[in-house]
Design brief:
The chain has 3 domains: 91 residues, Beta Barrel (OB fold (Dihydrolipoamide Acetyltransferase, E2P)), CATH 2.40.50.140; 90 residues, OB fold (Dihydrolipoamide Acetyltransferase, E2P); 79 residues, OB fold (Dihydrolipoamide Acetyltransferase, E2P), CATH 2.40.50. Helices cover 15% and strands 39% of the residues. Strands 1-2-3-5-4 form a 5-stranded mixed beta barrel. Strands 6-7-8-10-9 form a 5-stranded mixed β-barrel. A 5-stranded mixed β-barrel has the order 11-12-13-15-14. Strand 12 and strand 13 form a beta hairpin. It is elongated, with a radius of gyration of 26 Å.
Length: 271
Amino acid sequence: MGDASAGQVVRRFLAALRVGDVCHGTITAVSRSEMSVTLDGFPGQPLGTVGTLDGSWRRRFADVAVVGQRISGEVIAVDLDAGRMRLSMAATENPELWAFLKRLRCGEILAGTVAAIERFGVFVALDEGPDHPVHPGVGFITYPELSWRRFEAASDVVEVGQRMSCEFLQFDTWNGEARLSLRATRPDPFLEFAEGIVVGQRLSGRVTKLVPFGVFVQVADGIEGLVHLSELSSVPVEAPEDVVQIGDQLTVVVANVDLERRRLSLSRRQA
């Protein structure tokens, strides 16, 4: 059979599969990042792959990735062009949790309790749905999704035991989590602020941060704008600290308002 014909056979086999189907097969090869699986019904070559985080949430990858072992996994992606499909053994290992997460829809509001605060985000134990076999909660909030305002630590925004409602963003199949957003349930202070200002308007604010390319100035509660280095003075400056210091009060002019990227550009030179 030629390469073209073989590729068509693989494509037809994979095209019959759908995300959510459960497949069975045998592990034929293992690397540090994934295992290759020969699927029942297509013994000619391994078409399935299972990544390290898709192997199991309870056991180490090395314990489940054994050549010759029979496995079951749920289809989570099919790539017809590459002739490969991605399986999750964790899905079949935790069917109740997986089914719950699959039912969630983007934009849905979920209630729960802060279960743990980590340096990489916040775990939330959801009121509905099963417990997670590994993590303190099925829900997870990354730092950027905690608040519209800048903060130093997650504990400045939430605390363990706190009740909250969050918006569901997506099903993280790698970790078996519901990615959530707390800030999405709160008004965006930048949009409210932007409604009341125009380019060329004078504002007064305090310098909050110096960076190599300029300074940030707080012009309202939770609202900071950037004064670029070129806009700090009417004469060229090499570093922002040559002109201003943190805590200084400045009069600035609104140079640009970018609603899509939530950025406020300011100019001290024009003021």
